Amino acid sequence: MADPIRWARYRWQRLISTEGREGSSSNSSNKCYQSSKTTGKHRIVIPCLGHFKEEYEKVSKLYMNNQIRTTKYTLLNFLPRNLFEQFHRVANLYFLFLVVLNWVPLVEAFQKEITMLPLVVVLTIIAVKDGLEDYSKYKMDKQINNLLTKVYSRKEKKYIDECWKNVNVGDFIRLSRNEIIPADMVLLYSSDLDGICYIETAGLDGETNLKQRQVVRGYSEQVSEIDPEKFSSRIECESPNNDLSRFQGFVEHSNKDRVGLSKENLLLRGCTVRNTEAVVGIVVYAGHETKAMLNNSGPHYKRSKLERKVNTDILWCVLLLILMCLTGAIGHGIWLSRYSEIPFFNIPEPDGKSIPPTLAGFNMFWTMIILLQVLIPVSLYVSIEIVKLGQIYLIQNDIDFYHEKTDSTIQCRALNIAEDLGQIQYIFSDKTGTLTENKMVFRRCSIAGQEYCHEENAKRLESYQEMDSEDEDSADHQCGSLTHRSKWRGHDCRAVNKPLNRRSLNQLSGSYPALVREDGEGDVPHSGHVAFSSPIETDVVPDTQLLEKFSQISSRSYQQSEEAGRKLSLETTYITDFFLALAICNTVVVSVPNQPRQKMRQSSLGRMPIKSLEEIRQMFQRLSVRRLSSSPLPSVKESSSESPNSFVSKLSIFRMKLASPALDGAAQRAAECHSTDSPEDSQVPQELDTVNVAAGCEHNSAVSSIELSPLPKLCYEAESPDEAALVHAARAYKCILQSRTPDQVTVDFAGLGSLTFQLLHILPFDSVRKRMSVVVRHPISNKVLVYTKGADSVMMDLLRTASEVGTNNSEMEQKKIKERTQKHLDDYARRGLRTLCIAKKVMSDAEYAEWLNHHFLAETSIDNREALLLESAVRLETELTLLGATGIEDRLQEGVPDTIQALRKAGIKIWMLTGDKRETAVNIAYACKLLEPDDRIFTLKSQSRDACALVMSKILEGIQKNTSASKKTSRKLGSVSPSPSTRAPGFSAGLVIDGRTLEHVLHDSLQNIFLELTEKCRAVVCCQATPLQKSIVVRLVRNKLKAMTLAVGDGANDVSMIQVADTGVGISGQEGMQAVMASDFAISQFRHLKKLLLVHGHWCYTRLTNMVLYFFYKNVAYLPSPFWITLLDAFYQSLVCFFVPYFTYCGSDIDIFSFGNPINTAALFIILFHLLIECKSVTWIHTVVIVGSILLYFVFTLAFGATCKTHNPPSNPYWIMEKHMTDPVFYLVCLLTTCVALLPRYLLRVLQGTLFLSPVLRAKHLDRLTPKEQREAIKRWEDDCIVNCRVEFQATSGSSSSATGAVSEEESIASVLPTSKAPLQACSRHGLVEDTSFLPDIQDESGTTNGLNSEKNIFLNSAKETNSDTFGSNNSCAKVSMCASEEGSGAVSLAHKAGLNSVLCEEDALMHFTKSECCLKPKSSNC
Amino acid sequence: MKNKTSSLPQEGEARPSRCPDNSAFKQQKLPAWKPQLTIAAVLSSFFLTGVFCLSVGVCLIISANSVREIQIDYSDKCSDCSKLRENSSNWNKECHCSVNFMLKEDMLGDVFMYYGLQNFYQNHRRYVISRSDAQLLGRNVNIQKSYCAPFTTYRNGTPMAPCGAIANSMFNDTIDLFYNLNSSVIQVPLLKTGNSWWTDKNVKFRNPKSYNLSSAFAGTARPPYWQKPVYLLDEEDERNNGYVNDDFIIWMRVSAFATFRNLYRRVRRIRQFADGLPAGNYTFHISYNFPVTKFKGRKHVILSTVVWSGGSNPFLGIAYVVSGTAATLTGFVITVIHLKLRKKKTFFQK
């Protein structure tokens, strides 16, 4: 109760307080945004402290403070602003116009006040809705604004608690662990020794893995916490923008030195500080200018197709209205002109004269417009909106969309396009994370041209699959299926190797439960925190062969056998490098699981490079000596020969790395600090703890026969699942990534012990380069190494080319490796694996130094930085040596093939747009039944546009020939033997196109032929498509084919596609929330699309269309596509409704209001019973509403008739109802009118229900049968379809309508297929088309089911044409029924639900009925 | 789930599961009756409807046929009178005429006398509203604010009582009925009260309160077309004078159609008229005041008996019979369709 008052007071205070400060805290962020923009392209942030005070005031005045206001209205501007917004709607303006019109005395039809009622009611309802929404936003804002944080106070010289809203740009903020960041700030201090702060961005983008943020260079080496008083630098950065992944700027120290800032230095509002005791930062963006707020666009509004359609219908209604009014007006004029004198009943003007007939006619026109205004339903828009809200509510509450593992259900972000879901014709789907789980599982690898197929691992995965199917409901892999896991583990161990001793196995299984329990405890509250780490991904069983080779390396390194075979040693080099690359070349964060979010500290060994020079030398010598004697690696050998020199050079490079001008001194200082305060001490005991606990979990360690060193269980938090998979794979081979800091990476390598690599650079992954690189200094060879991993398409071009032919042995070798690896890669792709190439490069120090210089320049420039960085990266990643390749499996999501088939059968075309390479994409397409084994696959892969055109026209020709041929046979067969039992497999084609060709195809000149081609194909797969291409394709289909499109994706690369499509669906998977943020609907699993589209889409659409039609009907009945039919029916009913009472009372002494009463009453009954006829099912809601409205009508009219003597002048219904209730004729008239009016529609529906069953009706029938009967019925239905289908083809064979399918007899396939091959082969001769005739090795269903499916598909197409559903929802009707028919009992529940159709709209329609009663009464009496 | 203004992860207490309730309403699984509109299911409804309509229709026709009614058009019977009334300046000249007719059969039971008007568009939109219900309730209201314009006040400001076009155009013929028995002429006793609705007479229409009627209407003037002020409508009966005059009340109940009748008198069933009107010769004595030629209209006087189903209009009965027949026929047709289809067994319902 008190809240609204407080809200009011608050609003008032705000208003007063903001009076003076121009707009600085005004709600519209745009305005402020601009105001700060005016200060320049960059923003300058100065600490709000003593010596800067004046300047601070000057600069920071224009910046927003951290108070946020997301509300739209204030208390004062609510009314005008809300009204203003509401009158943006044309419909509301129209009704306003009518109200105003009624105030003109000449044309006044009703009492002025009464006409205003409907409009006022509508406006009030909407205003209340808006107000409530705004109020809840206000409460939320208040809560956020009053959160506390520690801000440095100048007065008290310490950090004090302040509300978020009082934080200003330039404030210093100190945050502790697990605190939420109140504003965007630049990180100046972290308690972490490496100057790192970990943040969790789940609140911002949903990504659950930790992100590292770095202290600004120059501040990272400080010992103690930064003292704000001493901070004398100024920060210059970009103006506020909404790009989360970009932040550019620099810190300018008082001595004019500049240090570049990047997004690595920025802590974003809304994120949480983790793993870091304390951080201090300076606020650069606050409040609405933070990136989080700028990204928060709120729910967006799209106009649905139906809404657009309704608008045209309304235009028709307006036209009809004008026509009717014109008729009335002209008639009135003519009628008046027949009288020479003024008759009594024509009331003269005050001056005694009558107005001329033409003017009277003109007046009459406007009067009629007021009188007949109900033709355009005033409440239609409101009702549509309310019904949509209801639908959204029901969708959100559908338990079938609930995904237990992620505890997430569907989110509807766009509120008003629910019914578009029932209209989708095209689905554009991303592959990774959408169709697949995005759980990467390491499957195979190829090193130095030798493949290791990891059969044991494959077995393990199979056992997982079984487990999945057995134990579907297990909430969590981690704890749900322990027994299964231990079973397979035992099995694996036995299969894998002999060295594994019994004891360790026991230990393994024994310790596991304990660990799990602990894991469970730790993880339940943060369920889903550790991304990409389900056991299916983490546990990799090593390949025996490879393991053997591996163990050789390690053991020989102990045996000091320097003179091993040359070839073998080369291979071992490769293997070592390969796994090092897997372990190093990533951005994985290492942490210890049972202390969640606790960073794993590196061991003391890791501190190597930053000790005093003397120590370094000693250590290095120790190391190099040891390696010298032991390591068989050639590179090491090299280094050993030049050891003294290399040491010097190493030092110089080390210097150079740190030699960024401003930091030189600081680095030295930091080095000294580290050596003095030895922070490792505190960490050691902790590590020991973890070691004990984790012994069992790191079970792979037991596999290694060399030593059973206790290893801590490490948690790898990766940005992408591929990375995690590779690191886990490396770990399986005892190449364990131990820790990672910005400076170094520690890898525990088999028997060699820990190797600490000095990390010189990371060139992160981006979609342009399609690769990432790390630059490290090898601790043994002391060389600068570049490890690169990336997509094979780009990597293969970057390899060292054998320019001097065959001169060098290793070059030859490399070439051979390249060829073999390419073969393996192709093989992997064919198996549907994701492929990555791993390569390395050895750089000389000089080369590196040169590159570093360039790179540094690129890094520090503010403008054009990205392009420069890219260029710099490209310069580094050349002349690589191929090490090998990996194949990672991305498993299909549960239920994907089913869903795709169901959608396909519903007549929806599905395209797959992916960035993956062709083979992978095609195989996933097979796996998810997007392509069937019987399909002809056409692959477009052209170098030029002309070639592309040629190929496409050839393919088209081929398809046409096929379809016409099969059509012919089908026609013949259809007429000869329509036996329903014969199978009818159809000809179908799939199109595969890659990104480069797509570019040609999307050119204007080829668009049409491309679309024509795609229309003939049942599936299209676009591979290697960039995000931009994805969106272009969607837009092309949407605009050119005028089709309703839906795009579904889960990652940032799908965002553009999602935004372009009519309906965007985001999958809230593991890749963050960007897709979800851009989407209209967010689901957690691809399979949810089935119900969303086929059931909810259908419901929403039919319900809403029915409601809209009912609205039109209802208003016309008193006064027709389905619209016109409805209008016609309504017209008929209105005629009956008027003329039956008319003739009955004709010539009697009935008065005008008594005459209206039976009409009104009859209309009520007609409308209600009409509703009942149209109802698919009747629940208690219907009953209550229908009975209720009848009762309410009588109670109201009786009460009104008894009490109202003068209340409603001039129409006075006094005692009329009472009088009629005693008159038998009244009842007889009402009865007859109702019967006669409804008879045609009733008859029509009865005939339709018997003779022309729509699929929906059939599905309804199914619902009443027992399961056994249902099966039989479905079978008969299918048989029926074939007959129908044939008939259909006979009927339409003349037309050249798109041949979506063709029926042909089994025998005819043989004759059809050879012909289809001919054009293809012709093309492939030119090398333009590849006849991809390979069959996937993914098991498929038997051919019979495929044939059956295609039948259904065909039926659907024909059903679409024949279906005479009045409401034009043919498409969706067919969908539901197919869904029901194919799945038998499982889907019958859906059909059952379908029967419950239109609860909402009917309810709503009825609610509005009583309202319309009031407006209609006077009208009927004026007939 | 809703888009939050700021994305704050909820700390602390374990969040309840987001799993939606598995309730019938939320899952759209409410138990429902699903009417199946197939021929087999609805066949009976057609026949039932047919039978019902036919029987009602027959009853209605029989009862409508028992109504005796005679209607006489007298608009031109008094030719000089109609001419006289064409010119509105002769409004105060009296004009009488008589119309003879013969009843061939007795009219038994209650006999009602109506006057009928043709082409008088009492349902004209602006005519219908041209009244002030508040004034007719006897309240002292400012009729300027009502819909009476332009029949509210005279130029000098005197308000009209009653105001409005309806009252102004009140039917003002007087009709008397005489029975010519042999050579003697007997005036048929007619009741001029009790013809209107009880509620109208006693609730809806009230005279202004005063010690007598003329003083109650002091300060007001009669409507322009009226020959005498409202308080002189019935000088004999105080309770039938002023606004509560039955003729006035009935006129004020505006008709729904352009051709209509209004109840004028009832035959008082005494003496030889105790059973109704006996057959024989009758004469209407009409004081012809209401001009109809101006609007190309006609005037009738109607004598009629009534039954439970209203007057002599046979429409409702015929309509019932026709629709009853139609329903029955449709029933037969769809039966045939049903039987044919059943043999084919194309459907899976049994």
From TrEMBL, chain B:
UniProt-annotated stretches for the region Disordered: 1-22
GO CC, any one term: Golgi apparatus
Keywords: Glycoprotein, Membrane, Transmembrane, Transmembrane helix
Compartments it resides in: Membrane
Membrane-spanning intervals of the chain: 37-64, 315-339
GO biological process: phospholipid translocation
Record has Transmembrane helix as a keyword: yes
Domain of life: Eukaryota
InterPro entries: CDC50/LEM3_fam
Main location: membrane
Family: Belongs to the CDC50/LEM3 family.
Name of the featured protein: Cell cycle control protein
Gene: Tmem30c
